[in-house]
Amino acid sequence: MMNIILLGPPGAGKGTQAALLQANRGMIQLSTGDMLRAAVAAGTPIGLKAKSVMEKGELVSDTIVSALIGERLDEAAGAGVIFDGFPRTLHQAEALDILLGQRDRHLDYVIELEVDEEALVKRIIGRFSCAKCGANYHDSFHPPRVPGVCDICGSTEFRRRPDDNEATVRTRMAEYRAKTEPILPFYADRGLLRRVAGMAPVEDVAAQIDAILDGKS
Ligand code: ADP
Ligand code: AMP
Questions:
Q1: From the CA of 165, how far away is ligand 1's center (Å)?
Q2: CA distance 209 to 197
């Protein structure tokens, strides 16, 4: 039962790779971004608090996201977990150690997707997803096989994230550099950090990750 973190700036491909790992290895993707968007859509107290922070591209409080992760970890009992978009601060990384320890879990790998910042803006501006099943697409890099129809579920409704615009993306990148990058040494010092070339095509990135998880890299 493996527990891994996918780390990288917005648009690095964390969600794309987490979905593949979920499908191929039966692991469970825990995305704090998805949890927060669901809370916003449902109008819960957490959602009401998080909405404006997310629209600005800033980080939601450590207490809120750590509590969300704790709940989901309990629901994922017995399965390996992929942390996607969490932890994003040193405080969250420390909270994760405690949450895992309380459940007799430990981290196996922290995988950093290395990418080029200008390409990220392109990836994010072109990103959209199926409104019904959540499958991810991109205007240029991964359009649906039949234009306007979801490959997975056949739905014809799609949506774009309100924070996927250029101004907000710049803020999200700055937040990543200022608050998230500093946690890399925290994991490197423990020998957990592995780097993959995130600019490669989706299947190549997936192969690099597979090699790490299978102990071949
Ligand atoms: P993150 O979860 O890190 O924010 P996503 O997985 O949502 O990133 O990817 C952002 C966008 O880039 C999506 O539209 C996705 O289809 C596309 N994408 C992901 N990985 C790659 C890749 N290796 N090459 C080209 N486009 C990619
Ligand atoms: P993401 O889907 O990972 O790109 O996250 C979208 C937005 O949700 C971010 O820009 C933050 O506002 C918020 N968010 C997601 N995960 C976290 C986290 N671990 N800590 C703080 N804010 C988060």
A1: 15
A2: 10
Burial of residue 195 (number of CB atoms within 10 Å: 0-12, 13-18, 19+): middle
User: Ligand 1 site: residues with CB under 6 angstroms?
Assistant: 8, 10-16, 123, 126-127, 136, 138, 141-142, 201-202, 205
User: Is 4 a pocket residue for ligand 2 (Cβ < 6 Å)?
Assistant: no
CA distance 211 to 144: 28
**Contact 10 CB / ligand 2 (< 6 Å):** yes
Stated pTM of the model: 0.95
Distances (CA, A) of 208 to 7, 30, 49, 94, 197: 14, 21, 38, 27, 8
Give dist(CA 173, CA 117) in Å, integer.
Answer: 8
- The residue among 29, 2, 25 whose CA lies nearest residue 109 is 2
- Per-residue pLDDT tens over the stretch 62-118: 999 999 999 999 999 999 999 999 999 999 999 999 999 999 999 999 999 999 988
End-to-end Cα separation, the chain, in angstroms? 19
Q: Considering only CA atoms, which of 24, 26, 22, 25 is closest in space to residue 34?
A: 22
